[in-house]
Amino acid sequence: MTMSKLEVAYDLDALLIALLASLLISKGIWEFSFLVLGASSFLLMITWKVLSFGSIDTFLIDKIGKSKVANKNYPFYSKKII
Predict the structure, then answer these.
(1) Is residue 10 part of a domain?
(2) Which of 2, 3, 15, 25 could form a disulfide with 7 if both were Cys (CB 3.0 to 4.6 A apart)?
């Protein structure tokens, strides 16, 4: 079986986070692990925002404009149910 890029990235991330956490613990500065986790999450968010998905970019952009769920009227919801 072949592993997808997502599985490889997940496995490498799990390995690197564990190594980084053990390094921070051994140096006695484990409190910085929260800062590292927050910074890496922020960088991942920015990366996903600017990342190109190739041929499905136009499909994703079209879906963003059409997915106004809050503006749709659903007659089967009423205040009695909620």
Answers:
(1) yes
(2) 3
Give the phi and the psi of residue 36 in degrees, each rounded to 5. Answer: -65, -40
pTM of the model: 0.51
Six token digits for residue 11 = 């496995």
For the chain, how many structural domains are there in total?
A: 1
What is the pLDDT at residue 71? 52
Give the integer Cα–Cα distance in Å for 65 and 4. Answer: 30
Q: With beta carbons less than 8 A apart as the criterion, state whether 53 and 61 touch.
A: no
pLDDT at residue 50 in the model: 82
pLDDT tens digits, 35-52: 988 998 899 889 888 887
